[in-house]
Amino acid sequence: MLLALAAAGLAGCSVLGLPSIGGDDKAAVKPPPPTVSQPGRKVVLVGLDQAGARVELGLDQQLQVRLLTKVAAAPEWSLIGPVPASVSVQGPRFEPDARSNVSGEVEGDTVWQIRPTAAGSVLLRFGYRRPHNTAPATQVVTFDVVIK
């Protein structure tokens, strides 16, 4: 009887937010990254909401990456690392949000146009940091691009 109560108490640990003993912790299992695939569309759009996603592109498609930027905060988005040979990158360019017209509080998107030039797989990494700063980025966003 005492053994049954002890087992029930240990099983209840996860209900109370305590780690369970010997049980599988479902919260530690991460779901696979989402896949963004839009066959038939000329431009596939991704942003912060799709960070970490696998993006499937055809050779006839373009990828547009739009990352929210707050100009008053001074950090900016930049592409980290060399540009792979299987893509052509245009950008970045800043597009202000028409709704954020308060002086000094401008928000908008930093935008890149990425065109595939050959089939393959490309990891695109973008970092958010102050310009010309060698400190690690405060935020890093990646997209695993598969070109078919």
Task: Give me the secondary-structure topology.
Layout: H1 2-11, E1 35-37, E2 43-47, E3 54-57, E4 62-70, E5 76-80, E6 87-96, E7 107-116, E8 120-129, E9 139-147
Parallel strand pairs: 1-3, 2-4, 3-9
Antiparallel strand pairs: 4-7, 5-8, 6-7, 8-9
From the alpha carbons, calculate the radius of gyration and give it in angstroms.
Answer: 22 Å
Distance between the termini: 62 Å
Largest sheet: 5 strands, mixed
How many structural domains does the protein architecture include? 2
The level-1 CATH class of the largest domain: Mainly Beta
The computed structural class is mainly beta
**Run of helices and strands:** HEEEEEEEEE
Q: Can you describe what's shown?
A:
- This protein is mostly beta strands and 148 residues long.
- It folds into two domains: 30 residues, no CATH class; 116 residues, Sandwich (Immunoglobulin-like), CATH 2.60.40.2020.
- Helix content is 7%, strand content 44%.
- It has one helix and nine strands, in the order αβββββββββ.
- A five-stranded mixed beta sheet has the order 1-3-9-8-5, with no helix packed on it.
- It is globular.
- The N and C termini lie far apart (62 Å).
In short:
The strands form two sheets. This protein has a five-stranded mixed sheet, with no helix packed on it. It has a four-stranded mixed sheet with strand order 2-4-7-6, with no helix packed on it. The chain is mainly beta and 148 residues long. The protein has one helix spanning 2-11; strands at 35-37, 43-47, 54-57, 62-70, 76-80, 87-96, 107-116, 120-129, 139-147.
